[in-house]
Amino acid sequence: MTAMTRADCVERDAADPLAHFRDEFVLPEGVVYLDGNSLGALPKATPGRVAEMVEREWGQNLIASWNDAGWWDKPRVLGAKLAPLIGAAPHEVVVGDGTSVNLFKAVIAALRLNPGRSVVLGESGNFPTDLYITQGAAELMGAVERRVDPDSPELGEALATGGVAAVLLSHVDYRTGALRDMAGITRLAHDHGALVVWDLCHSVGAVPIGLDACAVDFAVGCTYKYLNAGPGAPAFSYVAERHHGTARQPLSGWHGHARPFDFTGDYVPAEGASRFLSGSQPLIADAALEASLDMWGRVDMELVREKSLALTDLFIELTAPAGLDLVTPRQAERRGSQVSLSHPGGYPMVRALIERGVIGDFRAPDVLRFGFTPLYLRYVDVFDAAAALVEVVCSGQWRNPRFAEREQVT
Amino acid sequence: MTAMTRADCVERDAADPLAHFRDEFVLPEGVVYLDGNSLGALPKATPGRVAEMVEREWGQNLIASWNDAGWWDKPRVLGAKLAPLIGAAPHEVVVGDGTSVNLFKAVIAALRLNPGRSVVLGESGNFPTDLYITQGAAELMGAVERRVDPDSPELGEALATGGVAAVLLSHVDYRTGALRDMAGITRLAHDHGALVVWDLCHSVGAVPIGLDACAVDFAVGCTYKYLNAGPGAPAFSYVAERHHGTARQPLSGWHGHARPFDFTGDYVPAEGASRFLSGSQPLIADAALEASLDMWGRVDMELVREKSLALTDLFIELTAPAGLDLVTPRQAERRGSQVSLSHPGGYPMVRALIERGVIGDFRAPDVLRFGFTPLYLRYVDVFDAAAALVEVVCSGQWRNPRFAEREQVT
Questions:
Q1: Burial class of residue A390 (count of CB atoms within 10 Å of its CB; 0-12, 13-18, 19+)
Q2: Residue-by-residue DSSP string for B251-286
Q3: How much is the pLDDT for B3?
Q4: Under 8 Å CB-to-CB from A357, ≥6 apart: which residues?
Q5: Pairing of strands A367-371, A361-363
Q6: Which residues lie across from B293 on neighbouring strands?
Q7: Domain A6-30+301-404 class, CATH top level
Q8: pLDDT at B1 (0 to 100)
Q9: Where in chain B do CATH 3.40.640.10 domains reside?
Q10: Residue B368: closest CA among B175, B225, B201, B202
Q11: How many residue contacts between A and B have a Cβ separation below 8 Å?
């Protein structure tokens, strides 16, 4: 196969059915932004929506907006808007709190639904907060935390050993970009009597997800990466309908109460996914999320997946001359929407690229991580970014000592 | 004592050292807003600050803002700005998550610091989320929840019975507006070997608070009432310095880790109040909070308290002819910054007042609740509001059936 030229890329962009979405984003001049898997770009609709919320809903209508502007129901309304992106029914999703807090709720709810068992099975290489939160939840529940590599036979072996109450896995690995077989792993876990919690942080808005079709039990995800809802935007919880009457999470605040305005003395969980809510949510942040979700309502996830794989394939091919190790699976169907490469000089390489306007990030100890967001990235952007990487590496430019100075990189 | 006339009020306003703060708020035309104890008014500086955060920090600088705009340290920076308002040292306060989540952290941390004891003592009439969260935390910890009336000898009796690990009380009662003796109750609890968690939702920004001076252990509060940070704005946690090395909260996410960027496999709590953090926070909401706190940095809380008591005294006196029962303590030093009145017709009375532009709220079963925010309320506003209430009640206008129709009131 002959590698694509820049002219080929221009042609692909002209024919791209998603190309028009790029106009809906603010993208700084001279930048190729390959970090949308960490923080998505700003949709042009967002500042206006936020200003409207702040100046009219809050500033002019004040407390009346809890009813009139639908503030009270926002966690459910946003959940329903998000649901199609993850293959869920509208009433199975609520928006609120952060990923860490929601993981805690889901892990404890899963343990409680499986009272005869005490093992929470996690993955050794998961994002730290998943590991730490599981430790915190397990300690409270008198449960045992075990970790395996879910891309190896260890997972099946650990399940077969018995006693596993819940499995918590990331759908897409934040470091490697590996996409897990949600249907197969969920089935395997269920066959062994375990419930499954999926962390969708690196897959929502990046790959089509079918939570209901895969019979998933619980899922949690953030909205500030591929969904472009802004830094630290509220996270979401998915609770499968079959658990709506029985799942019990411990952060039993008044927003999760069956009749919150009765102000009664005892907690009675609400019907449905609402029982996963706790307290009031930052409605200014919710306004930004709503602007994003309204755009996502017009997006065809199959087209996103198709373009995502084309972009990542292209980047993998074009960066081959740099000679870095490919960490991300080469096989398209096993990949999320990112490409990770490794090299002992990964850190200065990322810094040198940033200086040239190509924004990726670095994950210790040696991973260069590049996220591909089909809504605002063009094929030419990928071409230019790959060319920059090859040049930075092959010219030895990355060895300039100033790139080795450490900054905190998130 | 002769009641003040409207002319007297105009004079008081002219001499009010806090009067100029009113110009720093957006206040809708024709409204007297007496619900700042539920949702504070919008500071004029906020929309610009939020827009700057969204359009420049996020839109233009993207991921680099985690370092360059100080996003990573925002929970600590905002905590330090808030600290003087609650009599805390800067490193004892962090901002993040919501009140319910933070109450959960504090109650469990207190139980863990007192391992030989198993009772969490709450108050029968506390805001429901305090009650529900305590139930959820106690269940996980195998603890027992007990409730007393903290304004009665029950509190001392329950403490004397023994076994109380932690006491969770509201500094100001959300319904009655009663202000508790923080120093005395904290001392009493300590004398009986219990730790104390104070909920400051209805006192922060309303009364001077001395957490360090009172030797409080933990405190939690919201920022969307008297602090005017916007609907559902992030809450805060106070952790007394003497507990910084030992307090352990269960939502052990990566933002509370000692070395979050090492991405190690095991949770190690950070030094100081940072260990009460969990995950990423909604930074758009944080921007609104920062705008508010920067204003509060110029406020003298003693002047706020003085005016607050003058306003509430005035309202109590001027509404006396309406003949409603006063729920709030008549004695100024036992009062927060609200006045609650009760009447079986409380709901339609509140609706009738709202129609006249006087915004208070209703709390079941029969409480009319009015909050007084010295930064943006004038004496004439209080005069006019009181006159409206007297007229609505004495004219029988509140009996109009249209005021009885129920809306959800928050």
A1: middle
A2: ---GGGBSSGGG--SS--BPSGGGGG--S---HHHH
A3: 78
A4: A30, A31, A32
A5: antiparallel
A6: none
A7: alpha beta
A8: 55
A9: 48-296
A10: B175
A11: 291
Residues of chain B with CATH 3.90.1150.10: 6-30+300-404
Closest CA in chain B for residue A365: B262
Nearest 5°: the CA angle A96, A100, A102 is 45
A133 vs B contacts (CB less than 8 Å): 251-253, 278
Whether residues A283 and B128 touch (CB distance < 8 A) is answered with: no
Tokens of A44: 């042009």
Nearest CA in chain B to A35: B63
* DSSP 3-state of A362: strand
Q: Which of A132, A259, A369 best tests the B interface by mutation, with the highest count of B CBs <10 A?
A: A132
Q: Please state, in angstroms and rounded to a whole number, the distance separating the CA atoms of residues A217 and A212.
A: 9
- Closest by CA to B283, choosing from A371, A31, A73, A98, is A98
Chain B positions touching A63 (Cβ under 8 A) are: 35, 38-39, 359, 361, 410
Rounded to two decimals, the ipTM of the complex is: 0.97
**Fold (CATH) for B6-30+300-404:** Aspartate Aminotransferase, domain 1 (3.90.1150)
Contacts of A235 in chain B (CB under 8 A): 279
The distance from CA B294 to its chain's CA centroid, rounded to whole angstroms, is 18
- Model pTM? 0.97
Q: Which of A369, A379, A381, A403 is catalytic?
A: A369
Say what the pLDDT of residue A405 is.
84
pLDDT at A2: 66
Specify the domain boundaries for CATH 3.90.1150.10 within chain A.
6-30+301-404
Active-site residues of B, by number, are: 127, 199, 224-225, 369
The verdict on domain B48-296 having CATH code 3.30.530.20 is no
Separation in Å, CA A198 to CA A86, A109, A195: 11, 13, 10
Instruction: List, for chain A, all residue ranges whose pLDDT scores fall below the cut of 70.
Output: 1-2, 407-410
Q: Are A134 and A122 in contact (CB under 8 A)?
A: yes
Question: Which is nearest to B99 in space by CA: A184, A255, A113?
Answer: A255
Q: Which amino acid is at A308?
A: S
Average pLDDT rounded to a whole number, residues B172-176: 97
Question: pLDDT of B17-43, one tens digit each?
Answer: 999 999 999 999 999 999 999 999 999
**Cβ of B54 and A42 within 8 Å?**
yes
Residue of A346, A363, A82, A364 whose CA lies nearest to A229: A82
Q: Check if B151 contacts A (Cβ < 8 Å).
A: no
Q: Calculate how close chain A gets to B267, using CA atoms only, in Å.
A: 5
Name every chain B residue with its beta carbon within 8 A of the beta carbon of A136: 250-252, 267
**Neighbouring-strand partners of residue B170:** B199
Q: What pLDDT does residue B405 have? A: 84
Q: Outline which parts of chain A fall under CATH 3.40.640.10.
A: 49-296
- Which residue, chain included where needed, has tokens 């359009």? B55
Q: Chain A: give the shortest CA distance to residue B333, in Å.
A: 28
Q: Collect all residues of chain B within an 8 Å Cβ-Cβ radius of residue A39.
A: 58, 62-63, 66
Amino acid B282: pLDDT: 98
What is the reported pLDDT for B192? 98
Q: Report pLDDT for B408.
A: 57
- Return the CATH number of the domain spanning residue range A49-296: 3.40.640.10
Q: Is B62 on the interface with A (CB under 8 A)?
A: yes
CB contact under 8 A, A62 and B359: yes
Provide the pLDDT for residue A178: 97
